[in-house]
Amino acid sequence: MTWKDRQSGDHPTAEAVVDLASVRRLEAVGFRAWPANTVHYDGSWLIRLTAGHPSKRLNSVNPLDPSDYRDIAIRLQKASQRFAEHGRSLTVRQTPLTPPQMIAHMDAEGWTVFGHSLVLALDLAERDFGEGIDHLPIKDVRRFADARIRIGKEDPGSNQALVDIISAIKPESGLFLFEDREIGPTAVSLVVHDNDLAGIMQFAIAAPVRRQGIGNALLGTSLRWARLRGAKKAWLQVEAANEAAIELYRKAGFAEVYRYLYRAPRGVGHGNQG
């Protein structure tokens, strides 16, 4: 896809030529792959809230129709109140589906821009993964969550919330964990198989073993499992600043489908995870 940077108010955003039908489908499977505790619709705005976990994807307003821009200020105020009731600050996830009028409103009000991410996809039909699988998924969700938190150096107190999120995933999921006898968990990946699509989630490599081929091995294992389960295409989300991960994915054949970012009212903090 061709992206052009532009200045919108004081904040950089992006415009792109994208297939909105593909965006809608990937957004839908993304919500199923990473379910929020509370879901509320205001028109076509999907409001997702999860009090126990700081993930921005689980705590954001997600506009899903570019033509739904009525009463923007009033609806954002109502959303802000809903977020406050959950102990959260209002956050909007801006994708190609966000109405231009809403983007203009946020620009005019001085909303901050942060958390730029890319959505990448790969056609699995073009890859030969063989007939077998070299690494089986584990069944212990808590063990996986412990490893993910340890590798990511995250707050151990978020363990139960992560267990709850993974346990709430409806589509078939594969939990992959690589370990070393001396340093413990080295890599994790959560693969969510949803009809002909497979999402690669929670992909993380421990700092001491990066650039040693483990990331490539884990990605290959994840994609092989997804293909053997019947998935035709894999997708994932990655922060735009994570150059090492993007390089790994592009070498595997992933290509950009679209981008998104987060917005918050001026003066509001945004320390949530991705």
TrEMBL record:
PANTHER family membership: ACETYLTRANSFERASE, N-ACETYLTRANSFERASE DOMAIN-CONTAINING PROTEIN
Species: Sinorhizobium kostiense
N-acetyltransferase domain segment(s): 136-274
Database matches in Pfam families: Rv0428c_C
Record-given protein name: GNAT superfamily N-acetyltransferase
Keyword entries, A-Z: Acyltransferase, Transferase
Organism phylogeny: Bacteria, Pseudomonadati, Pseudomonadota, Alphaproteobacteria, Hyphomicrobiales
